[in-house]
Amino acid sequence: MAEPAKKTENITLDNVAEQKYDLITRRLQEVLGGDTIRAILAEGRAPKCYWGSAPTGRPHIGYFVPLTKIADFLRAGVAVTILLADVHAFLDNLKAPLELVAHRTKYYKHILKSVFTSLGIPTNKLRFVEGSSYQLTREYNMDNYRLCAIVTEHDAKKAGAEVVKQVESPLLSGLLYPGMQALDEQYLGCDFQFGGVDQRKIFTFAELYLPRLGYAKRAHLMNPMVPGLGGGKMSSSDPDSKIDFLEAPAEVRRKIKRAFCEEGNVQENGVLSFVEAVLIPISQLRIERLHGETGADADEGASAVGTQTPFALEGAPEGTVFSISRPEKYGGSLHYQAFADLKRDFADKKIHPGDLKTAVADAIVQLLEPIRKTFEESQEWQEVEKLAYPPPPQPEKKKKKKVYHPPPPGKGKNARADPAVATNGGDSVPASSEEAHSTAEAAKQQT
After folding, report:
1. Would you state the torsion angle of the CA atoms of residues 154, 159, 162, 165, taken in this order, to the nearest 10 degrees?
2. Which residues on neighbouring strands pair with residue 233, listed in sequence order?
3. What pLDDT was estimated at residue 2?
4. What would the pLDDT profile of 395-440 be if each residue is shown by its tens digit?
5. Contact (CB, 8 A) for 198 and 163
6. Which residue positions does the secretion signal occupy (predicted)?
7. What is the pTM of this model?
């Protein structure tokens, strides 16, 4: 993970406001426009933010990173909007028709609310908005046209390079994507937009072009991206790189067992990175909650479902955020209070990849258990899931065409007796060439 976001010192805050700013910006990879947030806090106002997701493929466990971070925002008193970007989902190289996007939007809302509840984050403090509820209005479309009149094709394509699916002949729809995401900041009334570091080019695009329309420049906060299980990007389109929120325990363990996790290698290690980006922050969140450190969010954890303890073994030292179970003959279990110590031990080959994988798989199964249970108990969600992600159509079995092959001369049920064949007591036997010739001559004389 990158170094923590650096504080901006231009605006002095009191202790309470400084603590809020630290909560808002901790564990992020980058902060653009931090002074904007500090100015709002200095005025005693509550900042407003939005986080958006386009409902295309099935959400995967990499989403735990931004969703967990939202707990920090609520603790700092931030008003949070969750955007279900249905129009964006359609525009992204037509990954799904509008009818299918509508079902997937409902599915995303179910899954996100379930994940928030499993993390102890109160959903009643979150505002859920569908993009189509305002992106189809006259006012929004006029602003979109105004934006199109000043944005070059080069800038639009560059802004969406990390987010919009890149193809050889891009559709115009993909070029509209970044501009609409920029306009969302104005129409959702946010002070900062939150997203993954893969959104950076769209964020800088928004900072450049919104002021040209007469709108305020917003701040942008970016979380790190979790590598996939194979070491590359965790992607909804690559089933081997990710684990879905509804994945069965056996499938979770199978995928983790196959994941790239070379002994001593801490680079592009998806298993190790997941501990850093997801498991340890959730453990810290739970430990702080046990100590009553929830800031402005007094409701945090009140409606939580599932296990709410850190990923530490029974009897682990106070403050342990992650434990690895090992038999005594291999040195006994290991307990860590900071990721840096775990990373160092793995690099020094003090931790076997198999032991790390087992601990991570156990933690993921525990994380997903309440989400799967909620799904299994909700008939509505199950019906939505079938509509949102129907099984792919089975290829039609090609029927074999019967081809008529005529029998050879003298064969078949209507064939005349072969003069070259004589009978002997009812049994057919080949006739000699002389017998066949005599028979043919006799037949000629009788006609």
Report:
1. -60
2. 227
3. 47
4. 777 777 777 777 777 666 665 555 554 455 545 555 455 555 555 5
5. yes
6. none
7. 0.84
In our burial notation (b when 16+ CB lie closer than 10 A, e otherwise), range 129-153 reads bbbbeebeeeebeebbeebeeebee
40 CB contacts (<8 Å, ≥6 apart)? 46, 47, 191
Q: Report whether pLDDT(445) > 70.
A: no
Distance CA 435, CA 447 (A): 19
Q: Quote the tokens at residue 234.
A: 């965790």
Nearest to 366 by CA among 434, 309, 301: 309
Write out the two tokens for 331.
């040195």
